[in-house]
Automatic annotation (TrEMBL):
<dbReference type="Pfam" id="PF01557">
    <property type="entry name" value="FAA_hydrolase"/>
</dbReference>
<dbReference type="GO" id="GO:0005737">
    <property type="term" value="C:cytoplasm"/>
</dbReference>
<dbReference type="InterPro" id="IPR050772">
    <property type="entry name" value="Hydratase-Decarb/MhpD_sf"/>
</dbReference>
<dbReference type="GO" id="GO:0008684">
    <property type="term" value="F:2-oxopent-4-enoate hydratase activity"/>
</dbReference>
<dbReference type="InterPro" id="IPR036663">
    <property type="entry name" value="Fumarylacetoacetase_C_sf"/>
</dbReference>
<protein>
    <submittedName>
        <fullName>2-oxo-3-hexenedioate decarboxylase</fullName>
    </submittedName>
</protein>
<feature type="domain" description="Fumarylacetoacetase-like C-terminal">
    <location>
        <begin position="93"/>
        <end position="246"/>
    </location>
</feature>
<dbReference type="InterPro" id="IPR011234">
    <property type="entry name" value="Fumarylacetoacetase-like_C"/>
</dbReference>
<keyword id="KW-0456">Lyase</keyword>
Length: 250
């Protein structure tokens, strides 16, 4: 394990300072996930793991990073925010992105088919991820961002899950900043569909002998580019059929 890098990451998160990225070029992805585990143990001691998040789910992001598969991170209770006021000071360089979250109703087996998985879901809802990379200007390599728990720092999940709509692969999505629409997209931007992203996660977790359990929540990946947010900004995310969330950074 690269203990110096781990110590730097933990210190950076605790003190709210930023690191130079793109310098840990000798790490493998497998080692990076081990670092993620150790980082999460240090940052979230005794915290409940609520589920997982998918990262780098869009083709353009994967091409930029030189990867062909998405990555995953872990969601802890401590990083959960309700809609409404969010303290801007809790973050260093926050960016918000619209997502669809899925809630697992029954333990999932890695060999389950897509239809079996859909039948094991409680439902879908709108979510906002608040990213906050430990690396200056979000300049990192894929192993560094995996170790940094995929920039996970905050999220808001609308509590009204609805049965997964048949149109889950083509719902209209909008993210606005201070009332002005910034990005418009379709849920298809996430690996074809948030459910396909979930299927990908099931495969990624299986490689680590992990699986999705009843009650897990999964943030299926950013549907548009993330929007940088400043103190005083109001971010609104709407997903057709699923509702909306408003966050006010105070
Ligand atoms: O959730 C995400 O897609 C982000 C993954 C890490 C990359 C980033 O911080 O932009
Ligand atoms: Mg995300």
């Amino acid at each position: 394990m690269n203990n110096d890098f781990l110590a730097e990451l933990i210190k950076a998160r605790r003190k709210g300072v930023l690191l130079e990225g793109k310098i840990h070029n000798d790490l493998t992805l497998k080692e990076a996930y081990k670092l993620q585990d150790a980082y999460c143990e240090a940052i979230y001691p005794d915290q409940r793991l609520l589920g997982y998040k998918m990262g780098l789910t869009s083709k353009p992001k994967q091409v930029t990073m030189g990867i062909s598969k998405p990555i995953f991170g872990r969601l802890y209770e401590a990083d959960m925010y309700q809609s409404g006021a969010v303290p801007h000071s809790a973050f260093v360089q926050p960016r918000c992105e619209p997502e669809v979250a899925l809630l697992v109703r029954e333990d999932i087996d890695p060999s389950d088919s897509k239809d079996e998985v859909i039948a094991k879901l409680y439902g879908a809802t709108v979510a906002v991820e608040i990213l906050d990379s430990r690396f200056k200007g979000y300049r990192f390599n894929v192993e560094e961002v995996v170790a940094d728990n995929t920039s996970a720092a905050g999220y808001c999940i609308y509590p009204g899950f609805v049965p997964v709509p048949p149109e889950i692969d083509r719902l209209a999505v909008e993210i606005s900043l201070n009332g002005e629409g910034i990005h418009f997209a379709s849920t298809s931007a996430v690996m074809g569909s948030p459910v396909d992203s979930l299927m990908e996660l099931i495969g990624l977790l299986a490689a680590f002998n992990e699986r999705l359990r009843k009650g897990d929540v999964v943030m299926t990946g950013g549907i548009t580019d993330a929007v940088p947010v400043s103190l005083g900004d109001v971010v609104t995310v709407k997903v057709e059929q699923l509702s909306s969330i408003e966050l006010c950074f105070k």
